[in-house]
Amino acid sequence: MKKLLFYYFSIIFVCLTGKLSAQTYQLVGNPVNITGWDLVSNASVSGDFIQLTQDIGNQFGVVKLSTPINLKYCDKWKVEFDFRIDGNGTTQFGRGDGFTFWYLSNPPTGFTSGGGLGIPANANGLMVGFDIFNNTTEGQMSKIHVLYGTNNLPVGNNNIEYNTTAGSTFHSADLNPTQPFVGSTYKHVIVNGEMDPTNTNIWNIKIQLDGVLIVDQPFTASGGAIGMTTGYFGFSAATGGASARHSIKNAKIYIDKVPILTNTVTPFVCVNPATGNGTVDLTSFQNQFVTNPANYVFTYLGPGGVPITNPTNYQYSTGTTNVTVIVKDPSSTLCDNGDGKIVLTPTPFAASDVTLTGCNNNNAGGAIFDLTAAALSSVPGSTSVFYNTMFDLNNHINPITNPSAYLSPAATIFAQVTTPLGCTDVAQITLALFPVVEVQEATLRSCAIETKPSTALFNLTTATVTSQTATKKYYPSLADAQNGTNEILTPITYISPNGVIYIKVINGNGCYAIAKVNLIVIPQVFSNTLEDKIICMEDNTTLDAGPGFTSYQWSTGATTQTITNVTVGTYWVKLKTGDCVTTQTVKVYAADQPVITAVDISNTTVTVYVNGGTPPYKYSMDGIKWQNSNVFKNVPRGDNHIFVKDAYDCDPIDITIVVPNIINVITPNGDGINDVIDYSALAGKQNLVFNIFDRYGAKIHQADKSTKYKWDGTAGGRKVPTGSYWYSVSWNENDKKNTPIKYSGWILVKNRD
Questions:
Q1: What is the pTM of this model?
Q2: Cβ atoms within 10 A of the Cβ of 743, count?
């Protein structure tokens, strides 16, 4: 539901410009602001009220709006005010006479006698009088008189107390007993006016005094009030022979029209040369008057105020035609607004020739033009049909079927432009092309990334593809460049293998060309001469990176091609070729030392077994004389050294062995001489084991720690038969390798039965 738009100026009259119609006229403030109002005769401002008359005889006072108000389209209005009538009166007539609120086409401008309540004879309009003097009895009273007509009955009489025009007047009972008008306090009055929907000359008037409904009935205009649409709101009072002070304050006059956005719409219209007239849909302009036309009722009046019965197809001719637009809000208390106007002034229609300039993108031979975007007409709603030739246009054949995406080289085409009113004209459209964007293919080379040598880091922005000022965008494929998809967002740090990318070069006109950029990964260049080496741990060597490089940077800090006195370890060198640097790693390994895995001793023959290192091996018993054979004969009894070295000729490894002093014959007869074989002298060796075997290889005795590494020629507690037996002694030397030693031989046992 809409609400009244009340604009509280202090008695400010707002000139209606079409932007705003709702308004309120007021007499408020302290002192009262009378801007927009006129004070006539004895009326004056006194603090927060207007004093119309002083408390003396023959006083006359008026306050009225300075500018008339047109209520032609206003079917509802309201007035509120407070009044006070007080004073001493006179001895003969007491207090008198009263005051009037009115809406008059001819308001009072000079003195009016007291009985007329300040209203002159022949005043036309609506008058509401508050009368305190009975002119018949010359006594006090409190009556409300209403007249909607001309104040001249009886003829020439200006006292509405006596006017009884049927249907146009009202006279209340004397309200002195219940609501006396005279007193020191203000009375509050509300007057509502509402036009009869079936007869604009009938107003339903409702008057309340201090909340009590006094009047509620229709009044029919009579006399000069018939057909009256413009008048002045105001208040007047007179005292005549009596005296009283008449005062009003807090006056508010609510005259609220439907607010409209503009008063006058002047659309472009034209006439058909063949008929000399044209037609227009007047309802199509409703949204220029109000924001939501569906909420309002529109009425259209042609010249002379003739209602237009078919506004959607209104016919006009040459010359200017003024159409009055009345806007009514059926859901609110707002008045109709009849200030709208549609001015139809037919003029010849002329379409505009235009030039469209497009981009010959990527030198494709033409541009895609949106012909529908050409500004061929300033008339809203105009339509266009496009043709390649005037012949096609004149014969209405072969229209361009894709005008919003028309591919064409530079050319001239034609359009038939038609306004919503059916007026047509031909426009020429010149299709021009912007200069093409010049690009060239480019190649970028970049050093391989050491951690991923099949790729390189490229700065795509350094590719020289154009000499023109332009914006560049980078794409991984031609299709992406054409479609603007998958743009490379980090072109300065683009990592790629060998391949291509594409640059879309866009100039200031938005035109573009696509350039191909070849990406070449410069491979790493390594030294062919620099290889890993194996040296003896105690030795050193020389590393040579070979010739042909721009610079060298070794992990040792050296910047020469070779480095010397290199010991076992891992080294690197940065080899520069052109702008690229390759890091090559080289290792110097310690030669593996051979290991003596076992030593077999058979009587005085020693056999050495070796593993590891790099064959061939060399063997020595003194570290001076070397032999290729691993067998030493006639090795003396006792401790001996064995030396071994491999092909690298590094410092030899050596171990100490013991060749036991062996007794080959025992006679276990208890005489204390050669009774046992005794290896207890080797008890300090690790894992010492002494085994005896018969001639068939069966072990018949094992001497260990429990037997103190001795054998007395028995097996299972019985003497073995006289004969030859085999034995083996094994142990691990007490060296770092725990070298295993095996000593074997034969022994003759002579037992006497």
A1: 0.47
A2: 23
